[in-house]
Amino acid sequence: MSAAAYDAIVQSIYRASAGLAPWLAALEGAAHAFDAWAVQLLGVDKRSGTVTFSYEAGRAPPESGLDYMRTYHRIDPRVALQRPWPVKKWLACQEHFDDAYVATSPFYQDFLIPYGGRYLFGAKLIEDDACIVLLGHLSRFGKPPLDGDQRAAFERIGEHIAQAFDIQRHLSRVAERDALGFALLDRLRQPVVLLDPNRRITFSSEAAKAILRRGDVIYDHEGTLACRSTESDLDLTLAMRELALAPINSNDARKAPLDRRPIRLRRGMGPQILAGTLLALRPKDVMGAFGRSPQALLTIYEPGVASEVDPFLLATTFDLTPAEGRVAARLASGLTLEAIAREFNISIWTVRSQLKSVFEKTGTNRQADLVRLLLVATAF
């Protein structure tokens, strides 16, 4: 690797830590320089073993990242081996898992090798009470593992990533409280939580703090949002990935990111399910109201707590405009169209026009069906 290429990678790493570039840009430079099948930066929740975030650059197909997060991280022998190791102790997988082991390992035979990967060289870069952050270089199947000089160079890249990622985590704890959006969120009746792309909590309303303190559904785990239910925790990670607040895979350009995603939040024990909606807040779309970094807004509805249907919840759930959300909420609360027009000082024709749009977006055509849908959606 030339000095110029190395310097470019290091520069992109620290730009990512400051929020000026996506982490994927830094990893793409490393993947190209080291001819990797994949360079992966991975966060793992220590309590549940769930992958909380993953960035992958290189030749690996995007399906491999999703399959890893859904299933195969649970049987990855490399992660299990590294977990008790100290930070920055590097693992070369061929030194611990020989060909005989690989030939009978479901992880290698059902997942890694069929997708085109083979040798790992990686380390645990960061560890605290909540999570571990892993960095790995994966060689293509049929190619040799990294040699000694390549390992040394990749270790130096890892040192920079560890420092830069620690800087980013520190900056994420410093909420941009002078931003207009935070003051607006504080006024909402519904519990709301803002998350950065790595599921770090950047803001929570007072109503949400009460739920987090109670801790039976979601809770603040050393600054990261965690779910009591392992199934909900994985669903939250996949939902964050589908919003694609930050680029996460260099081969995943075919699928457009979602703007919103419903999510079910289950209690750790018991059948009750809380409804949630994740909404992407990208700075360019919200005029920087929540700072310069992309955020995910998690809105939670807890049955039996709210005294009336919240228009914001309906707007985020059904992709309504704020005005349409207000009309829908008042209808669900039992008001007539005439009463809604009087309350908001608008014409009955405006209310009917907004109702027509609500019908189209919810797939209903009668007020009774609409109200039934709204009540079911907010009570589930």
Helix percent reads 40-55%
SS-derived structural category:
alpha+beta
The CATH class of the largest domain: Alpha Beta
* Gross geometry: elongated
Q: What value does the average pLDDT take?
A: 83
Compute the number of strand runs. 12
The helix tally amounts to: 15
Q: Which band does the percent of strand residues land in? A: 15-25%
Describe this structure in words.
- With 380 residues, the chain is α+β, with helices and mostly antiparallel strands.
- The protein folds into three domains: 3-172, Beta-Lactamase; 176-307, PAS domain (Beta-Lactamase); 318-380, Arc Repressor Mutant, subunit A (Orthogonal Bundle).
- The chain is 44% helix and 21% strand.
- The strands form three sheets. A five-stranded antiparallel sheet has the order 2-1-5-4-3, sandwiched between helices. It has a five-stranded antiparallel sheet with strand order 7-6-12-11-10, with helices on both faces. A two-stranded antiparallel sheet has the order 8-9.
- α12 crosses α14 (348-362).
- The N and C termini lie far apart (56 Å).
